[in-house]
Design goal:
This protein has 366 residues and is an alpha+beta fold. The protein has a domain at 24-83 and 193-328 and 350-365. It has helices at residues 2-16, 18-42, 48-64, 101-113, 117-120, 146-153, 159-176, 180-189, 204-218, 257-267; strands at 68-69, 75-77, 122-126, 141-145, 228-232, 243-247, 280-289, 294-299, 307-312, 359-365. A hairpin with a 7-residue loop joins strand 8 (294-299) and strand 9. Helix 1 packs across helix 2, helix 4 packs across helix 7 (159-176) and helix 6 (146-153) runs antiparallel to helix 7 (159-176).
Length: 366
């Protein structure tokens, strides 16, 4: 009796809600057409623009001197970070401007905002935290922009102190303002892409929703000059210059990559404010090592640096969902447990691999 009852229930639901069945058919038709376009493009060698984007990312990673993560998700080289600079112990020698981590990040922001950069960067504080001694005390969040701090610093008469304070304000702003999307914008702009093809922005969701809109517009030949389309991440072969993206929405922690893509597609016709998937991050595909079945990607503000990571590909050179790695797991972590009264740090996680993310879409160069 179980099978007929289930069939009756399903038939009843579809009859009662014909819009559900129609929506499923619409989604299936959409993604079938998109996949065909993605496959046709992926079968071609990467073009000159894709190679330039990849090379720009590689050169910027090398210039920054950031972190390296292997295909098991282990951080095996810890490089320069956003708040640091390279110098010998004791700080007696002069530092090259390009070896200042915060200065490199300011370069990305200036490519996005120009002379208005300081107005766009947020600096945060916590009320009375500089004088408080009680760690359990609650502190209200304070916000301002870097430009306001810089104006206050201009009144300092000593030139050395004034410059130190200016750099302190900018370094704090770099730490407090997420800059990963600014890095992607910098790489693509410096690869020769114009603003009519790519919206340079401070949030990855702008790139992602634009790419989904381009995929939809391509079905009616109305995509214009848009740089990227949205492709299913595990069924499309990546190429240099593409972007691979993951999401960090708590409400979608258990959602499949397919469900996340369909949610974005369904939101395309709504207002910009109604677009719900906001916590996202994209990496630039920099190199495909076909014999090893690995993909190198580069992105900014990953563990406070420009970071290169190696990801696994399947035998068909498509992205592998298995990015969990083999780094031992919690069973190999034998540090004694803290006392009962010690609070758990919010950053602690049971995940072993730094590559184990909710990857859900490949933004493919059209």
């Amino acid at each position: 009796m179980r099978v007929p009852v289930c069939a009756i229930v399903v038939a009843f639901v579809l009859a009662a809600h014909p819009a559900f069945a129609q929506a499923d058919r619409t989604a299936a038709t959409f993604w079938k057409a998109v996949q065909a376009t993605c496959d046709a493009t992926a079968a071609k060698p990467p073009g000159a623009l894709g190679r330039r984007i990849a090379q720009t990312a590689i050169e910027e990673f090398t210039r920054f001197g950031g972190h390296q993560i292997d295909s098991n998700g282990r951080l095996f080289r810890f490089g320069l970070t956003e708040a640091e600079h390279e110098e010998e112990d004791g700080g007696t020698r002069q530092a090259g401007i390009g070896h200042l981590g915060w200065w490199q990040v300011m370069k990305y922001w200036r490519a996005l905002y120009g002379n208005d950069t300081a107005d766009k960067l947020e600096v945060r504080g916590y009320r009375d935290a500089s004088t408080a001694t009680d760690e359990a005390r609650a502190a209200a969040l304070l916000r301002t922009d870097a430009a306001r701090l810089l104006r206050a610093v201009d009144g300092v008469s000593d030139p050395a102190a004034r410059e130190i304070l200016r750099e302190t304000a900018l370094r704090a702003a770099i730490i407090d303002t997420p800059w990963s999307a600014a890095f992607v914008s910098y790489v693509i702009r410096h690869s020769g892409v114009a603003a009519n093809a790519f919206r340079f922005a401070n949030a990855h969701r702008v790139f992602i929703y634009d790419a989904f809109a381009a995929s939809a517009a391509e079905l009616t030949n109305e995509a214009g000059d848009q740089l990227y389309r949205a492709c299913p991440v595990t069924t499309t072969r990546p190429r240099p210059g593409d972007l691979i993206c993951h999401q960090r929405e708590p409400a979608l922690a258990d959602a499949s990559d397919k469900a996340v893509r369909e949610r974005i597609r369904a939101e395309l016709d709504g207002s910009t404010g109604a677009r719900s998937i906001r916590r996202t991050h994209c990496d630039v595909v920099a190199y495909i090592d076909a014999p090893a079945r690995k993909m190198y990607v580069i992105s900014g503000n990953v563990y406070q640096a420009v970071t290169a990571r190696k990801l696994n590909l399947r035998n068909d050179l498509k992205f592998s969902a298995a990015q969990k790695g083999h780094c031992g797991g919690s069973g190999h972590w034998t540090l004694p447990r803290p006392s009962a009264h010690a609070p758990r740090a919010p950053s602690l996680t049971n995940k072993c691999s730094l590559n184990d993310k909710k990857w859900f879409v490949l933004l493919q160069l059209r």
